Amino acid sequence: MLECAIVGGGIHGTYLAQRLLEETAVERSDLRIVDPHERLLESFRRKARACEMSSMRSTFVHHVGTEPFGLEEFAEARDRGDELLPTQEYPRRPSLSLFLDHADHVIGRYDLESLHHRTSVESIQPRANDEVDGSFVLETPDGDSLVARAVVVAIGHGGRYRRPAWADGVDGISHVWDDAFDPNTAVDETTVVGGGITAAQLATTLTERESVTLLSRTELETETVEADPLWINWNHVERQLHRHPPGSRRRLDVLYSAQNRGTIPPRLVSALESAADRDALSIRQGAVRSARVVDGRVRLLLETGGCLPADRVVLATGFESVFEHPFVGHVADACGLERGYRGMPILEDETLAWRRTTGDASRLFVTGALAAGTAGPLAGTVIGARRAADRICDSIKPPSESPVIAD
């Protein structure tokens, strides 16, 4: 039996594994990172490649390693300090290449790939008998079940992308994170639909080799980071979020109002404006009424009556709510775990342990976007991984040896 199984090998799962090895008595042999990809962080890498991301939005102290200044030291030791990029009124941020190279360095240093169990998890079931109470069985497609005393769910948004109804069944329309989408496919004209950082990054990069239209439902909004940096402070999370009942609609309202959703950092706004000035980019505002293919080209009909033709349309329209992911529902039902408004997991605020319907805390913990109702608007970010690990590590400890009683 494992002491802990981490479901998800992204930034959150990779970071938490290090913290568990550093700060708890969990042995390497008792820890697994369960993820179906060929290597850790692969899903993040693929998404970054798809939108041709060049740099991180977070600062240089937010990375996969556990030492706050580890990435900076890594860069300086390799004469790559110029890849710590200036940010207006905010600390420097790393290039994507630097961030990933440092991540690979950390993974190699801890030999985390040896903990990587390359499979998906189809279900998580409770396992209870006379010998073991409160542990879990993780069922995998190959039938190689894992048993763990504690489980951490770190699944991100689970690959569920938001697709508007008008795009259903129309050839030539893909989501930026679909496996089939290749930004390097040569076309003359692309329409990117979306108004956030992914749409801006993709549109800006594509203008280097083709004509691009960026179509946003509303006016583009500028924000440097995903939420006010005050939300990095756990005391602020407690004051602003935890004063409302766990799983409540009020918590979700606070969460949504605090998130700078669909915003673009100033550096990308400048890049968009530069591309528009050289006539490589057209920025349009409006909602799409319908889409169809005419003579091999996709035509978007706008609610205002206009029409946008393009060789292809790429959706950068974000994710569906992870709270409503079917896997989350299956785990909650199978393990008797409580959910709140719109499927939000009801977690213990101090430990991120998922509460059972009986009212007590389970040994199933949550990190990442799924924990946003407790960890706040930065839950899904790199700093969110740090804050979640602060709470989870104190709760995942191997059972102590039974005391020896003298005769």
UniProtKB/TrEMBL annotation:
Transmembrane segments: none annotated. Residues 5-157 form the FAD-dependent urate hydroxylase HpyO/Asp monooxygenase CreE-like FAD/NAD(P)-binding domain. InterPro entries: FAD/NAD-bd_sf, HpyO/CreE_NAD-binding. It holds the Pfam family NAD_binding_9. PANTHER family: L-ORNITHINE N(5)-MONOOXYGENASE, PTHR38663. This is FAD-dependent urate hydroxylase HpyO/Asp monooxygenase CreE-like FAD/NAD(P)-binding domain-containing protein. The lineage of its organism: Archaea, Methanobacteriati, Methanobacteriota, Stenosarchaea group, Halobacteria.
